[in-house]
Amino acid sequence: MTFEQQWLEYDYNPFIIFSSNGKILSLNAEAQFLLGAASTNELFELTTTYANVSFGFKTTFLELEFGRYKFFALTVGYENEDEIGVKLYQSPSFKLNNPKPVGEMTNIYTLVDLCISTNSISSSIKYTKEFDPTIPEIIINTNKFIKLLNKIYSCFENNDTINTKIFYRVGEHIKFESKKYSIFSIEIKAENLNQQKADELEVFASSTNFYIDIQKKITINIPMITS
Question: Residue 66 above 50 pLDDT?
């Protein structure tokens, strides 16, 4: 996989290429999760409906919702009669009315590694990691974060493998006190999600200042507050 292909594969926004008869030819990781909430036919009909009249690319702003997924726009493009592609742009899942987070300057990788190490004790689960190394030290409430992350890992305890991904959210930000902050995410996913524990997690998260998104995977969205 080339560097450009990796960018597409790990994009936060779903991307799918269809054949002329609606068969999926390729898709990225996020689109695979979307297919758990929307059918192939629904997405193909959506793609052809918002395609340009002639060859080329067309972006349309509209509100779409499939289960927990919410989108604010989509781009459809095609250069021949055989293939057509669509990219859907996810709406931010976090609320903007919470107060600015407080805490201490912390290395997020150290906290995540600590939680992985704690949860791997006496466990046969394989913990895999995909870390973007560019996230700086940030201000975060370490105690609440560790409790939250441990609860997230407990939602996936009936799995052979749990993957943790840390990545920067290109072009997205959150505003506190009229100042914008970039955002990064910590995404934990595995094949099986314990729904009861996920419901308990959602209740706990509502009492913290963290923004989480629970689907088949669980994502924590964190502002990069460095001072």
Answer: yes
